[in-house]
Amino acid sequence: MVIVKIGVLALQGAFREHKKMLESCGAEAIEVRTTDDVNSVDGLIIPGGESTTIGKMMVDWGLLDTIKDRASHGMPIYGTCAGMILLAKDIVGSEQPRLGLMDICVRRNAFGRQVESFEADLHVAEFGTEPVRAVFIRAPYIESAGREVKVLAVVDEHIVIARQGNYLATAFHPELTQDDRIHKFFIGMVQESLGK
Ligand code: GLN
User: Which regions of the chain are under pLDDT 50?
Assistant: First the structure.
């Protein structure tokens, strides 16, 4: 495998777990906090956490425009949970800062306040017959998606995995399980973007 360098935005949230999983998949992984970090990686993961906090810090630390610029030149980005919210063009009832790169409308804390967290087995055609065990924590879902967006999995008819070109989003936290297929899929997207 060609080794790619993937950054994990490390402002707040579950970034350490993503880094570990990327490394166990054979990728080089770094924590990203500066524009130089953003410019040094082949792909970027935006972790789960608190999307309003991460978004505000991205603005304060001058990262938002640099990430958008790299994205417009084809850098793959994968957002999990809060990361998915930050990738979305539209967030129901919120004006919070975001990258706005994916043509999706997301609803925050969408599975109901009483359901703080739950797990589900997802059927994802791309990953064969073995279901993906997904951990949802105050999770959002994708309420609607544009025509360019490919839906990869749903829960109760709500979209929870989607891809649009160089962007991938999951409403749940694969880094908290032993299942590394989504990280491997993203590493494949990064290799593809480099023509490797
Ligand atoms: N509910 C959080 C938000 O809106 C996301 C939760 C998570 O990332 N686990 O930012």
Answer: none
